[in-house]
């Protein structure tokens, strides 16, 4: 995948995995691969940012290494840590065996076998690999700064072991749901792509590709309903992932098409807030479905 000839080949390979991309995203992925630059993906939840990393990993036949960000995450949770219980057991075993050489004991305690590798270190040491840094907007400023330094050189220094450098940098995908603004310094290090909600035709194609067992009629109706819900002032508008969930739920119920009553009964598959569900129940879902009749 690193040797792809251009955006068209990237697009073709991703589509083979079931992930449909537009021209802008195909170009961004190609440049990320060719220039070894992280790809910063921003947009609402459920629009396909995380799925892109999975599709890239599948297209490259490379492992996907995921770092899920959260408030308070630090380097020891993202990069590496020492296995203290095993170190303690080793120390006790050495003492029982009569080992008294302090320098030797210290060297053994900080041997590589006691190092617990976290996602960032695993990504640097795995070639090729795809590193997904998911929801970077949930981390704090200090972690952003640490990540920026790491992505600048793809190098880390472990005081007890020395400097480790990635022979082949991983393909890095960072995602943000824009719960807060990520600092410009990190964005400047990356290629940027904004993920918008797709139009009807593209969303329908995605649903059909992901759920080939669903009837064309059902996929079309669910897509139309999801598009209509997005036009409302909802707390959490449904993403493509929720559209797929909704179609899958209806298919599991044995439906080949949907009416307003069944749509209301299955709103829990697509809407996750009480306020949104109440607003949806107040819509004329039957009219939306009638307008989409073929």
What does this structure look like?
The chain has about 290 residues and is α/β, with parallel strands linked by helices. It is built from 15 helices and 9 strands. It has helices at about 5-15, 25-35, 50-60, 75-80, 85-95, 100-110, 120-125, 140-155, 185-190, 200-210, 215-230, 240-250, 260-265, 275-280, 285-290; strands spanning about 40-45, 65-70, 80, 115, 130-135, 155-160, 160-165, 170-175, 190-195. The strands form 3 sheets. Strands 2-5-8-1-9 form a 5-stranded parallel β-sheet, sandwiched between helices. It has a two-stranded antiparallel sheet with strand order 3-4. A two-stranded antiparallel sheet has the order 6-7. The longest helix is centred in the last third of the chain and has 15 residues, at about 215-230. The radius of gyration is 24 Å and the shape is elongated. The mean pLDDT is about 90.
Helix-strand layout with pairing:
Elements: H1 7-16, H2 23-35, E1 39-43, H3 49-60, E2 64-68, H4 75-78, E3 80-82, H5 84-96, H6 102-109, E4 115-117, H7 119-125, E5 130-134, H8 141-153, E6 155-158, E7 162-165, E8 171-176, H9 184-189, E9 191-195, H10 200-210, H11 216-230, H12 240-252, H13 260-265, H14 274-281, H15 285-291
Parallel strand pairs: 1-8, 1-9, 2-5, 5-8
Antiparallel strand pairs: 3-4, 6-7
């Amino acid at each position: 995948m690193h040797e792809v000839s251009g955006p068209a080949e990237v697009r073709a390979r991703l589509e083979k995995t079931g992930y449909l991309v537009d021209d802008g995203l195909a170009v961004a992925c190609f440049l990320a691969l060719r220039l070894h630059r992280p790809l910063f993906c921003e947009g609402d939840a459920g629009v396909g940012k995380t799925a892109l990393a999975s599709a890239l990993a599948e297209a490259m036949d490379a492992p996907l290494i995921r770092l899920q960000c959260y408030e308070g995450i630090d380097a020891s949770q993202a990069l590496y840590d020492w296995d203290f219980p095993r170190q303690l057991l080793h120390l006790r075993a050495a003492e029982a065996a009569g080992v008294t050489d302090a320098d030797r004991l210290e060297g053994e305690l900080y041997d590589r076998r006691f190092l617990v590798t976290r996602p960032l270190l695993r990504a640097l040491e795995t070639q090729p690999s795809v590193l997904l840094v998911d929801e970077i907007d949930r981390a704090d400023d200090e972690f952003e700064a640490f990540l920026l330094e790491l992505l600048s050189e793809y190098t880390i220094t472990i005081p007890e072991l020395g400097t480790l450098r990635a022979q082949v940098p991983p393909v890095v995908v960072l995602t943000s749901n824009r719960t807060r603004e990520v600092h410009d310094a990190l964005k400047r290090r990356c290629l940027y792509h904004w993920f918008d909600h797709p139009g009807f035709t593209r969303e329908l194609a995605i649903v059909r590709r992901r759920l080939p067992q669903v009837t064309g009629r059902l996929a079309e109706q669910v897509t139309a309903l999801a598009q209509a819900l997005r036009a409302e002032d909802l707390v959490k508008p449904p993403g493509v992932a929720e559209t797929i969930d909704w179609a899958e739920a209806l298919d599991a119920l044995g439906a080949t098409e949907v009416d307003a009553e069944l749509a209301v009964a299955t709103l829990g598959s697509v809407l996750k807030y009480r306020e949104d569900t109440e607003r949806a129940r107040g819509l004329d879902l039957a009219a939306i479905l009638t307008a989409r009749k073929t």
